[in-house]
Amino acid sequence: MASTQFSSPRSHAQQATMAVSGKPGSVKGGCSFGRAVNFSRKHHKGGLRVRNVATRLPETQVSPETQVSPEKGGGNERKLAAWTSIRQERWEGELAVQGEIPLWLNGTYLRNGPGLWHIGDYNFRHLFDGYATLVRLHFQDGRLIAGHRQIQSEAYKAAIKNKKLCYREFSEVPKTDNFLSYVGELASLFSGASLTDNANTGVVRLGDGRVVCLTETIKGSIIIDPDTLETMGKFEYSDTLGGLIHSAHPIVTESEFWTLLPDLVKPGYIVVRMEPGSNERKVIGRVNCRGGPAPGWIHSFPVTEHYVVVPEMSLRYCAQNLLRAEPTPLYKFEWHPLSKAFMHVMCKASGKIVASVEVPLYVTFHFINAYEEKDEDGRVTGIVADCCEHNADTTILDKLRLQNLRSFSGEDVLPDARVGRFTIPLDGSPYGKLEAALNPDEHGRGMDMCSINPAYLGKTYRYAYACGAQRPCNFPNTLTKLDLVEKKAKNWFDEGAVPSEPLFVARPGATEEDDGVVISMVSDKNGEGYALLLDGRTFEEIARGKFPYGLPYGLHGCWVPKK
Ligand SMILES: CC1=C(/C=C/C(C)=C/C=C/C(C)=C/C=C/C=C(C)/C=C/C=O)C(C)(C)CCC1
Ligand SMILES: [Fe+2]
Q: Which BP terms in the Gene Ontology apply to this protein (predicted)?
């Protein structure tokens, strides 16, 4: 058992060297540290809370493999760790907490994301290429215990073993030695063998309690233990649906699991459902694409109580780009504005399509929520679906190249985004609407990485939490609470810091939509990382817990309540 703290400012390159050499600052020899405990208890409106005046930090574990990326460009000062590889084969430790963690908050927040962007001295290009990294925050009786671990996908293990990229990632393709192996490569691409299983995008808790990390490849569905972050094995689908890719964000509740399988051969989407406790997806229906040579990219989609909404955007998969060795500006995709854009609505019970409307062009990766609109007689007249919309501009994909993220010069380069609100009539009209749900200036014209109170999934709702922007910036840098009724936003900001997706956790017994806390993890400008708790209602800081090292950026999280 060992721990480390980087006590004096050092460049990432220096830190990396030390990790390898075992000299001071190296994690190899590490040391444990502890401070006196002094829990002062006091009564609060919401019940008894613990104030951590000084917290005993039990011995932390730092894996001997802990390594910081050798990417170039760092000065001598410590700087933002968000875009830096932090390899932790297994780290655990209690975090010193400033402020008060509500005593009702008992459970585990898990965050997944691509936190390791190099193999040896080869640096990956794109944010989405990195190897899956789990960070865990376990809240118990006012204390906060953290963990950090790499997911042991085949792609990751092969890269570590062979010291080179072995599977196709978002923008990276393994080098082929000669023509014959290229032919073999093509075959393995069509069979899916060369595609990655690097489950670096999200993490969900299924209704039956299993916790699964996901990406866009079906084979990249990996079960993990939420207590130890250990990789348990592949989530094997027991049906015969086949296919290689699916939506990275299934809709998951205690009783439902929905996902979409894009069909690249006969352009369309298969809508499937899986019961808790089962590994068998059942086909509920199919949507045929109305435009373009291939289906639009489906990273996520929304549902209402009775319907599945299937977006068809003009940013479409591209078979040729899937085959290419070098990335194109749109990676595996192509922009087909002439193919138009559509929203389809399928009845969950019958699999019938009840609406298929043309909408203005859009670019979205994350839907926020959707709900049904009813007339006075309770008949559903339309669907409203909200998303983080990039003003029909695909350049955000290029902005997420690591080189761009690592080279912020103070220029305002983050493209504008908004809360895009689709209105889809169910009366057979051919067109739907898309407009901003609130003035984008409310959130600095940055908008992505969203969550809601899960009790409001598919229902009329008022609040959403997301990352917005305080400009100038090159990446969303605020945490934002959106009030979609008052059309206002509250923004939290720490200059120079990058916060990850805010996740809302409701207070048990809450009756108000925003009664709960918002959890995020922040990489700050000093190279440090901290877990942050905001009050869901006031959006003010309640507590933070500092990590003894800087945190890489992470994408999506989930909440696992106490057993
Ligand atoms: C698309 C294919 C693949 C991989 C896809 C992956 C890993 C996609 C990941 C997408 C993510 C994480 C999207 C997040 C978007 C966040 C945004 C826009 C934030 C904006 C902030 O302003 C392969 C599996 C590699 C191959 C098949 C095709
Ligand atoms: Fe996502």
A: carotene catabolic process
* Residue 196 Cβ contacting ligand 1 at under 6 Å: yes
The closest alpha carbon to 291, from 230, 358, 245, belongs to 358
Annotated binding site: 249, 299, 366, 556
Q: What is the pLDDT of residues 261-278, one digit of tens each?
A: 999 999 999 999 999 999
- Alpha helices in 414-551, H assignment, sequence order: none
Distance 172 CA to ligand 2 centre (A): 19
Distance between CA 259 and CA 283 in Å, rounded? 10
- How many Cα atoms occupy the beta-carbon half-sphere of 272 within 13 Å? 23
Contact yes or no for 333/316 (Cβ under 8 A)? yes
Q: What are phi and psi of 510, to 5 degrees?
A: -65, 145
Tell me the Ramachandran region of residue 162: left when phi exceeds 0, alpha when psi lies from -120 to 50, beta otherwise: alpha
Which residue matches tokens 């901290």? 530
CB-based contact 479:492 (threshold 8 Å): yes
Q: Specify whether the CB–CB gap between 513 and 95 falls below 8 A.
A: no
Among the listed residues 408, 428, 422, the one whose alpha carbon sits nearest the alpha carbon of residue 474: 408
Which numbered atom of ligand 1 lies nearest the CA of 333?
A: 1
pLDDT one-digit tens code per residue, 213-232: 999 999 999 999 999 999 99
Atom of ligand 1 nearest to the CA of 417: 22
Q: ipTM value of the model?
A: 0.92
This prediction has a pTM of: 0.89
- Report CA(120)–ligand 2 centroid distance (Å): 27
Q: Residue 187: helix, strand or coil by DSSP? A: helix
Q: Nearest to residue 394, comparing CAs of 366, 365, 360?
A: 365
Decide whether any atom of ligand 1 lies within 6 Å of the 299 Cβ: yes
